[in-house]
């Protein structure tokens, strides 16, 4: 187990170093902001968050290769998280995301904030509940590659760099399975106010681990049940604003 953990951490470290070759540019930084302790968290701030919440720390722009082994969306977010924490930021707001087809790059603009105390609770209270978001492969050069899976017994195919959103009804159970009888299966029960769940069917194995609806934590490992990877929700919300909805949904 220790050797597996070391391999994952080594993989994450290498990935972050490779992504550093791409462009993460600070467009503006609040030079008056000072902090004593580097935060570990990185909370997603959506459109429903009060615009007066938090202190704006910086404006950042990233260019992320779509199908490059040296820099993918996973390590881009991982690197952004670490960079933001070093600047004293523990939250982010997605300003804009565009895919530049000629360059096969995502151009992503993010505002970084520092939030504390009651502000963190206010942000958490805006997070979606009882949704199941399933992503296709986000680290492949084959853009037409599809992944077959079953959702509550219905056979579906999700394309790479896309996602499906499923509403999980309260009191009912949603089943996701990959690989048939001998494959992998996970169950999610719908409960009042239950935080949404984010999964990937390929292309990730290491991801930040702060969960929505909770406080504390830092960059860590994702949880995998075979071919179904459980993603950090803040990373999931980041992906939702970068990728396209699955056409077969």
Helix-strand sequence: HEEEHEEHEEEEEEEEEHE
Low-confidence stretches: 1-12, 206-211
Quaternary organization: single chain
Q: Provide the gyration radius in Å.
A: 18 Å
The proportion of residues forming helix, as a percent range, comes to: 10-25%
Major sheet, described briefly? 6 strands, mixed
Shape: globular
Characteristics:
single chain, 249 residues, alpha+beta, five-stranded mixed β-sheet, 4 helices, 19% helix, globular, disordered N terminus
Summarize the structure.
This protein is 19% helix and 35% strand. It is built from four helices and 15 strands. Residues 1-12 and 206-211 have low confidence and may be disordered.
Commentary on this structure:
With 249 residues, the protein is α+β, with helices and mostly antiparallel strands. The chain is 19% helix and 35% strand. It is built from four helices and 15 strands. The strands form three sheets. A six-stranded mixed beta sheet has the order 13-14-12-6-9-15, covered by helices on one side. The longest helix is centred in the N-terminal third of the chain and has 18 residues, at 2-19. It is globular, with a radius of gyration of 18 Å. Residues 1-12 and 206-211 have low confidence and may be disordered.
